[in-house]
Amino acid sequence: MEAHKRNNLIIIGIATLIIGILAYSVYYFFRKTKEQEAEMVEVVEMMNFEKKQVEKEFADLTVEFDGYTANIKNDSLVQKLQNEKMKVKQLLDELKVTKSTNAKRISELKAELAGVRRIMIQYVNQIDSLNSANKVLVHQNVEVTKKYHAVSETAAQLSKEKETLNQVVSRAAILEVTHFSFVPLNSKNKKVGWFTQMANMQFNYTITKNVTAQPGEKTMYLRITRPDDEVLCKNKNNVFQYENKKIVYSVSKTFEYTGESIVDAMYWKVEEIIPKGNYRAEFFADGNRIGSFSFTVEK
C-alpha cells in the first residue's frame, strides 16, 4: 500500500515537472515570437523608409535633369539627358510597385540609380565646360562689340567732322558779291536823277578774292525783282538751276575767275514801265546765291 502511494507521488511529481517544462516552453516560444514580430515590424519600417528614400532620390534626379535640359543649347547633349531621364522614370515606376520587403530588388534599383547619377555627373561636367566656354565667348563677343562700337563711333565722328569740314570748305569756296550800287542811266548811258528818264539800269558790284574757289569760266545770273515781287525778264526761257529747280533770271554774264577780286557791272535795258518803290537785286553763280541787295527807285 505504501509502495503504491509512493509510486503515485512519483508520478505526480514527474507530471508536475513535465507541465512546468511545457508551460515554460510555451512562455519562451510566445515571448520569442513577440520579439521576432517586433523585429519584423522594425525591419518592414526600415524597408519602407529605405524605399521612400530611394523614390525621393529618383524624383530629385528627375528634377535635376529638367533643370539642366532647360539651360543648354546643345541638341546632342539634351537628347542624351532626355534618354537618361526616361530611364530614371522607368526605374521610378518600377520602384513604386516593388514591395518594401523585396530588399534585393530595391537594392538593385538603388545601384542602378547610382549608375544613372554617375552618368549624369559626366553630362553635368560637359555642361559646365560648355557654359564656361560660352561665357568666354560671350565675354569676347562683348569686348568685340565694345571695340566695334568704339570704332563705329570714331568713324561716325570722323565722318561728321569730315562732313563739317567739307561744308566749311564748300562755304569758303562760294563766291561773294560786295560793294553793290545801282545807277539809273538815260539812253546815252548818262546818270539821271528822274526815273522817267531812265533807259538803262546799271548794277555795279565786286566779286571778292577767294583762293579756295574753283577757278575758270563762270556765269553770273542777276535777278531783278520789282516791288510787286515780279522778276524783270525779257524771255521766260531765261532760266538757271538753283536748289533743285529752275528759276528765271533778268541778266546773265560770263566771266573768267582766277581767284582774285573782280570789279564789274551788269545792265538792264528798260523797255517796260518801271514803277517806283523798293527793288531787290540777287546775284547767283555756281548754283549759289552770292549776293542780295535792295535799292529804291523813287523819283
Structural class: alpha+beta
List segments where confidence is low: pLDDT < 50 over at least 5 consecutive residues: none
Order of helices and strands: HHHEEEEEEEEE
Q: What is the share of helical residues?
A: 40-55%
Terminal-residue CA separation: 194 Å
Q: Whole-number average pLDDT?
A: 78
The Cα radius of gyration reads 58 Å
> Within the largest sheet, what's the order of strands?
6-3-8-9
Overall geometry:
rod-shaped
Quote the beta fraction: 15-25%
Largest sheet composition = 4 strands, antiparallel
Total of DSSP H or I helical runs spanning 4+ residues: 3
How many domains is the backbone divided into?
A: 2
User: What's the β-strand tally?
Assistant: 9
Q: What can you tell me about this protein's structure?
A:
The protein has helices at about 1-70, 75-95, 105-170, and strands at about 175-185, 200-205, 215-225, 240, 245-250, 250-255, 260-270, 275-285, 290-295. With about 300 residues, the protein is α+β, with helices and mostly antiparallel strands. The chain has two domains: about 1-130, no CATH class; about 175-295, Sandwich (Immunoglobulin-like). The strands form three sheets. It has a four-stranded antiparallel beta sheet with strand order 6-3-8-9, with no helix packed on it. Strand 4 (about 240) and strand 5 form a beta hairpin. Helix 1 (about 1-70) runs antiparallel to helix 2, helix 1 runs parallel beside helix 3 and helix 2 (about 75-95) runs antiparallel to helix 3. The longest helix has about 70 residues, at about 105-170. The N and C termini lie far apart (about 195 Å).
